[in-house]
Amino acid sequence: MERIVMKFGGSSVATTEKIAHVAQLIVAEVKKGNEVAVIVSAMGKTTDTLLALANDLNPHASKRELDMLLMTGEQVTASLLALAIEARGHKAKSFTGWQAGVRTESVYGDARIEDVQAAKVQSTITSGGVAVITGFQGIDIDGELTTLGRGGSDTSAVAVAIGISATICDIYTDVEGVFTTDPRVVSSAVQLHEISYDEMLELANLGAGVLHPRAVEFAKNHQMPLRVRPAHKKGKGTTIKEEVNLEANLSVRGIAFEQNVARITIMYETPYNGSLASIFTTLANHHLNVDIIVQSIQQDLQPSVSFSVKKEDFDEVIHVLDANKSNLRYQRLDFEEGLAKVSIVGSGMVSNPGVAAEMFDALRVATIPIKMVSTSEIKVSVVVPESAMVEAVEVLHAKFKLHTAI
Ligand code: ADP
Ligand code: ASP
Ligand code: MG
Asked: How far is it, in rounded angstroms, from Cα 6 to Cα 23?
């Protein structure tokens, strides 16, 4: 007997037919003698639909009220799935995140899970029932309900798996597993059988939407084995764990990408009179996140600092910089929108110093301009024009022979 967590994402529970099929998968696990806790997302695009409804009535809705609205999506799925399991003659009980003991910090819209008090879930599964829990939601210390950020049901699943000491957390989704890059965008992408927590965490943080980054972080910190599997097909999926057998000896394991990036450059008069600390403190005080930062100070050249921000924050960043121009003592501001970030990721890079150079060369040959660069031990990111993003991913996929990754 094993204790397992099965998580089903929105597209896997988009219709009642799909929910009925998911119920069959769950019942099959119960019949094997396993104890099963299930985490569900809202059906299909429900969360987007709810957001659009809110926007019709109030484009500046408070985060609390948005959370109260958005979390209803998951509740519909949990109830429907529980009754679909009952219809197959098995016991099932649905729970909201707060009933399941998912405690979060006091932040609306993007709360982090602090702990899971899983007594109710435990007693349901030990007595032979299936616990069906809404993903994406929790409760703070004051009894306020919170959500975990878009895609956050993955994190609910891992947190519950840790809370009930499950042997594995299976994330069922609409693709066969984790691929070398998004298979819906790049047709030569191939499925990986295994990937390490660290590589998956980088890919997820750099835009690979297949897993919520915090889910991977949690799994790594608690050594919870994670598996990404297809919900409506057969397939073993991809296992995410600490050490992996590198089937092919490649330094790059995957490529992630993100649209909607903008670059802002602040230019000072010479002699340099600006301070990085004051710019980034000002932005941080307004809760504005900055990604890649490049500072350039050279004799006789106008000193400047460039940084990238998400498109959704762009207007606000410009507004804050304008409003603080005299404090920040800069001369001129320049920006570029319509950019994207493309990142290569792989633990093999640590011991292979030429990888970044190969990346730049491949992009040069394809005449794709590189606007900014950022590196860490296991990744290199470049900012390129959004119009060249997919081509850049394809070029790099071929350059690093990722089609041979399995
Ligand atoms: P769910 O609704 O099940 O949570 P998501 O849409 O959040 O599903 O995640 C699955 C999607 O992630 C896939 O449809 C795919 O387009 C995207 N994706 C991005 N990068 C990758 C990758 N490297 N491997 C697999 N899927 C990826
Ligand atoms: N329903 C939420 C979303 O669409 C959470 C999730 O699916 O993980 O982002
Ligand atoms: Mg998801």
From this structure: 11
